[in-house]
């Protein structure tokens, strides 16, 4: 099977590329001129230099492909120019769907996000059928992914065989950027997590998310969404698990959301707008944190053969990778004991 894959230099995309290659797929990997190709080491495939911002230039790369797997996305919780995120996530997805249809591509797997779901403050576990609208989206990332998912749904209604995957919060090795989830791990390892807020999320093994992309190509139902999740955990439980792995003390101080919001406000203004750097905390993160992002993957388990895996091994793998690649100090004597 010939597959055009976007986002292979990113965290999820790297693991998807490995899984597809291991399954025997012939890959055409979209990269930009500025892409860091470190995550493509050991992945067999043909690289295509291009950009979703200039979609018509991708037509030759799509010719003869059996499927498109669109993983690429602008995943940031703070961005100085939000319009750039909408161009990448919404316009880029819409145009790639158009090109795939024109090229006669048979299947299109779109990597959305669990961020497009409607979560609640009471921690109720949601699924693909939980009612949601764009009014429920907090911040530009969620709104842009929601809008992009609507484009994928429209394409499916128009006859293109589009399968939508909604990973929760992936964790594992090779998170080079790192993602916002990876930054939680890195900050913890570097002693920059003195307190926590009362929030929660669903952590999923990134390798199992990648395997689900392979399964979706043959087993996914066009037009349907599939949540790909793992364990529903409070932030405190996540920190405690990392403490058990590393020997680094888990924070014991819980701070109110009002305090977290005040800190994030000054971080955005001083670090983001004045210094021009990415802030360590944002108001969007605090607003999102008021809702526990707990989800069920039962639908993906039943239809795709997706597996809900324990998060501990993938968390350990992430920690070991961050340490081995200089994001954090090496193991302490206590952690080695």
UniProtKB/TrEMBL annotation:
Coiled-coil features, chain-numbered ranges: none
Entry keyword set: Oxidoreductase
Residues of the NAD-dependent epimerase/dehydratase domain: 3-229
GO MF, one annotated term: aldehyde dehydrogenase (NAD+) activity
Pfam families: Epimerase
GO CC aspect terms: cytoplasm
InterPro entries documented for this protein: Epimerase_deHydtase, Hopanoid-assoc_sugar_epimerase, NAD(P)-bd_dom_sf, NAD(P)-dependent_oxidoreduct
Record EC number: 1.1.1.219
The protein, known as: Putative dihydroflavonol-4-reductase
Species: Candidatus Sulfuritelmatomonas gaucii
Gene: dfrA
